[in-house]
Design a protein that fits this description.
Length: about 775
């Protein structure tokens, strides 16, 4: 496994088809015949897509416009362009193509079942093997529906979330049916068993049970994730007991537990000889006296052999591309649906819960790991060649995104090293197969950043961007990540250039990019350039919106522009030159919502503190800080200050207190951090930046948790129970109480970016639950 140190950039794709990283040749323009052939042809297109060549991918998918497999490929291309490049204009095209694929899949499923019914003696079913006819097209249909729903969610608005859930409502029963059909005995046959979360942290390496192939490799990542989320994976035992959400697959050949009865389209996975034995045990017992011991032993051996054969049949991997698609696709669709629902804001969850939706995030992550593990790595963890089902790659991408979001936005991880290791294992597997893919390079850079190596992350991104662009929307993500990483390092000129570069690469909120770049120029002291960029904002804010509504960041920008103009007028200046009165960089303010200030160098944090502390009125806190003056009275945010002060409004002083509190916590100065965050929370007279109180409460909860972990490390401890249970119980209860208070600010339309706060609270609650499990509370 590669380390998180800086690595050389992957080489660009070569026209020589011999290296494993190069996508398969473009299929003939002659349409493929048969399900297996059409699937293989479409998979070749996906190989090009994952290797970062969307033009070749489209050519491959266009080879058979009548195939629902190829239509889905075209829809995925449009979806990825819309999602990765934040291109609102492409959402309509993505929806159109996905709708065509949905209709085509439904028609193909009906025709497949009709054809098979007419030929009852048919055994091959064109690659479908052991599964019922048409199941592969049911999966295609589910894929199209969930992507349609996610297209609606791209707006990051509550309306978009509602539309997303409306679309997914149509697929809910299908996902559940597919999962129960393909996995009637649960996922345990595809995943390994690990001990339930204990007091051991990542300092004690994970002990992996013996397993083969990639299913166990990636499934171990999912089980590690469930530990991070505070959900216990199944414990290893000769005959595991069934889980309420995941029925256990028998692992003992001598006495496998009988699966629950199910009406599975694939009956051989839904029942076993052992179940027949259990139902006939009473009658067999009455006859045992009439059977000799030798005959009884022989019958028992035969029954055990039958049970073992059926167990192997249930647990064997898929054979052929169509079977693989059915297994990987069912796991992917079910896992993705559950994970998306679990990450929606609580208000949306509660409303759509009336429709009967339930979610199990731990099971979702396990299902995604099953899909990713079957397809991204071959035996013994070796990278596979092209031709494997694409659901595994998408499952890996979803898992990467989830772990990246947890590391970025949760603020605290119960076991951060394990989360990083899990994230890295998934990236390693897929990047080995597609080293030129921008999506995998992006996640490699994120791992470096989350591992406190921002310079290494910047180097990886910059080298990747030097390669020829063949998938602009994917490369846009590299620029977006680079811009935030440069800003975090106070490399303001480079950050400004990167944010402005984004306006050339996609059509998502140019106003947001301009506003952040203007903030960079404020920090550089180039207020003329900052004013030039701000002058362009009114026109940019008038551009057509997704759904006709402003994005959350644009709502905040409108308020800030009016705030600056009012301040400039109050101070006797020209309102048209309002940048003159900006004291705190708008870029640093927006960076709070992306949690940019958490993973910065000590020197960078100290530079921020020195800059903020120099503003008048000077900061005064009773808690000693080596970076701030100490006074006798408690620090408060006074509502009234003379107009000559740099910060003459409660809004600005509360914002400074919030930023200073975050910076002090980054420097592990927890006492002054808490005092400053409390001052931001309790600030009186805040009129515009009403989001500060809720975010301050969230950051106070993070501070409590980090301080508890930091105290354990200071004492030389590496175990999660360095504090006693009573101590951890107090810390966790206090953090949850603060999150409860922060929740009152989340999800409110009059509070800026409240849905993001809502999501962050949900992620942190999961980490708190994980910590409870680790310390045995």
């Amino acid at each position: 496994m590669a380390t998180t140190e800086e690595q050389d950039p992957p080489a660009a794709a070569s026209p020589d088809p011999s290296p494993p990283s190069v996508a398969a040749p473009i299929p003939s323009t002659t349409p493929a015949t048969g399900t297996a052939a059409a699937l293989a042809s479409a998979n070749a297109g996906f190989d090009h897509l994952f290797a970062n060549d969307i033009a070749l991918a489209r050519t491959a998918f266009s080879a058979d416009a009548a195939s629902p497999f190829h239509l889905l490929g075209l829809g995925v291309c449009a979806f990825l362009e819309a999602a990765l490049g934040m291109e609102s204009g492409l959402m309509g095209e993505a929806s159109r193509l996905l709708a065509l694929s949905e209709a085509g899949a439904k028609k193909a499923a009906a025709e497949s079942r009709k054809t098979t019914s007419a030929n009852a003696n048919s055994s091959g079913r064109d690659g479908g093997g052991r599964f019922a006819p048409g199941l592969e097209y049911d999966i295609l249909h589910a894929d199209a529906v969930v992507l349609l729903g996610l297209t609606h969610a791209l707006s990051e608005s509550y309306m978009g979330y509602f539309q997303c859930m409306y679309a997914l409502n149509a697929a809910h029963s299908k996902f559940t049916k597919l999962y129960k059909t393909v996995f009637p005995a649960g996922l345990d046959a595809y995943t390994y068993h690990t001990p339930a979360p204990s007091r051991k942290t990542s300092a004690d390496r994970l002990s992996l049970a013996p397993s083969t192939g990639a299913a166990s490799s990636l499934a171990s990542s999912a089980n590690a994730s469930t530990s991070t989320l505070g959900v216990a994976p199944p414990s290893p035992s000769p005959s595991p007991s069934p889980s309420p959400s995941v029925p256990s697959t028998p692992t003992s050949a001598l006495a496998p537990p009988a699966p629950a009865p199910t009406k599975s389209l694939f009956g051989r996975w839904g029942a076993s000889t052992s179940s027949l034995l259990s139902t006939k045990s009473a009658s067999s017992a009455s006859k045992v006296a009439a059977v000799s011991p030798e005959e009884a032993a022989q019958k028992l051996r035969e029954a055990e052999e039958r049970a073992e054969r059926e167990r192997r049949e249930r647990e064997r991997g898929p054979e052929g591309a169509v079977e693989e698609m059915i297994v990987a696709g069912s796991a992917f669709g079910f896992g993705l649906f559950n994970l998306v629902f679990s990450l929606l804001p609580k208000r949306v969850q509660s409303l759509v819960g009336l429709l009967g939706f339930k979610h199990d995030r731990a099971l979702a992550l396990r299902a995604l790991a099953v899909s990713a593990g079957l397809n991204t790595l071959g035996p013994n963890g070796a990278p596979t060649g092209t031709g494997k089902d694409v659901h595994g790659v998408f499952a890996g991408l979803v898992l990467m995104t989830f772990h990246g979001v947890v590391l970025l936005l949760a603020g605290y991880q119960a076991d951060e090293a394990r989360t990083v290791r899990t994230y890295k294992a998934i990236v390693d597997g897929i990047e080995a197969r597609y080293p030129t893919g921008a999506l995998w390079i992006l996640n490699r850079a994120k791992i470096l950043r989350m591992s406190n190596d921002p310079q290494g992350a910047i180097a990886v991104l910059q080298r990747a961007l030097e390669a020829p662009q063949t998938f602009v929307q994917a490369d846009t993500l590299l620029v977006f990540e680079l811009a935030w990483t440069l800003l975090a390092q106070r490399r303001h000129q480079e950050a400004a250039d990167a944010f402005m570069k984004l306006t050339e690469l996609n059509s998502w909120s140019h106003a947001t990019y301009y506003f952040i770049a203007a903030g960079c120029y404020v920090s550089l002291g180039n207020r003329a350039k900052a004013q030039e960029l701000c002058d362009a904002l009114p026109e940019l804010l008038q551009r057509k919106k997704v759904g006709g509504k402003d994005l959350p960041t644009e709502v905040l920008i409108r308020k800030k522009l009016e705030f600056y103009k009012e301040k400039q007028k109050r101070r006797g200046g020209d309102p048209a030159k309002f940048v003159e009165c900006i004291s705190i960089s708008p870029a640093d303010e927006l960076a709070i919502f992306w949690n940019t200030h958490q993973r910065i160098d000590d020197a960078v944090a100290e530079a921020h503190i020195a800059e903020l502390a120099a503003l008048t009125p000077h900061v005064a806190i009773a808690v000693p800080s080596p970076l701030l003056p100490a006074v006798d009275e408690k620090h408060t945010v006074q509502p009234d200050q003379p107009p000559s002060a740099d910060l003459d409004t409660p809004d600005e002083r509360a914002l400074r207190a919030l930023l200073l509190g975050i910076m002090h916590r980054t420097l592990r100065l927890y006492a002054p951090a808490r005092a400053l965050l409390e001052a931001a929370r309790s600030a009186q007279g805040v009129k515009v930046s009403t989001w500060i109180a809720g975010v301050a409460l969230f950051e106070l909860a993070v501070t409590d948790l980090k301080e508890a972990d930091g105290g354990a490390r200071a004492e030389g401890e590496t175990r999660a129970d360095a504090l006693d249970k009573a101590g951890w119980a107090r810390v966790l209860a206090g953090a949850e109480a603060k999150l409860d208070a922060a929740q009152s600010f989340a999800g409110k339309s009059d509070i800026d970016l409240s849905s993001r706060l809502d999501s962050r609270i949900a992620l942190l609650r999961d980490e708190i639950a994980a910590k409870r499990g680790m310390v045995g509370i």
